[in-house]
């Protein structure tokens, strides 16, 4: 097996963590076709995304504590096996209701990757080091939203949307083998936590009353909301409203993923000169600028794929700077219960994402304006979270005001 600090371990971990997000990105080009095949409205089809996010959020609350008790590997392997079975169920779905059910089950399994990926990084590295590794991990994961929609669009154009879920099932089974035989168990025996309800509630109460955790988590959740507002509405806006062909949809989303990758690379480079909270502020300013630009263009009836994609690419660049810092900051005070802290962080993120995505589906008016406005609002909420919480309760060693002494 590989050493936990090996770059190859980080690459394999990124591939495992990408499974859950891939289940969102790959089937986006198929949303209009799914609606047509099942004679379902935009809100019903969009709910297959929202219910995935709801399941993803809820499952993490159990997945994290289970991993704190039994270790990261067995929980991750079990989750991916469930993901594979549910993906096959999605492929065989005969109506929109059964697809929604299997998407929920798919999310229960898919949640294991991201929540335990963050926990593994916290198991192995210090908080400051974790911010850099999470940025590297996120940079590698940016390949998923770059490649997945393009692959999904190709499958929709050449075969059928059902095959998207078959590909997901195969990917999950490959990752089961990779985790089982390639990555050692990172959780030390002395850090294992009892899996008892009272102990679980005590841990969650301790984490959820930590103001540092609250600040970084709410800031992260707001930006997640903006990200998923785009994911939820982009297929309908770009394909149905702006006339982008399904097979070309992935090319546009690849541009936004490229922005995310650039943001992560900038985060890694800036970490050599700046503290995490300084990088976080730069990223939040970038997301707000991008969201406001997209909303203003839509408000002035400037309707073009580029009026959506280019501001979103800038938003994603800011997101690539924000998320590693907020994830590391939220976990900084909880090294012995990183699984539970990561689970609660993921729950709040996905709850915000589900809410933003549902709003886009419910309020969609046949223009990019609703989606763009929600993205801008989420970016503004992220900056408010930073100014009123993160600045007052920074993680140890993260605070921007210490820059002059370093």
UniProtKB/TrEMBL annotation:
Pfam families: MFS_1 (PF07690). InterPro entries: Efflux_drug-R_Bcr/CmlA, MFS, MFS_dom, MFS_trans_sf. Keywords: Cell inner membrane, Cell membrane, Membrane, Transmembrane, Transmembrane helix, Transport. Its main location: membrane. Belongs to the major facilitator superfamily. Bcr/CmlA family. This is Bcr/CflA family efflux transporter. It is a multi-pass membrane protein. It is found in: Cell inner membrane; Cell membrane. NCBIfam families: efflux_Bcr_CflA, PRK11102.1. SUPFAM superfamilies: MFS general substrate transporter. Residues 9-394 form the Major facilitator superfamily (MFS) profile domain. Coiled coil: none annotated.
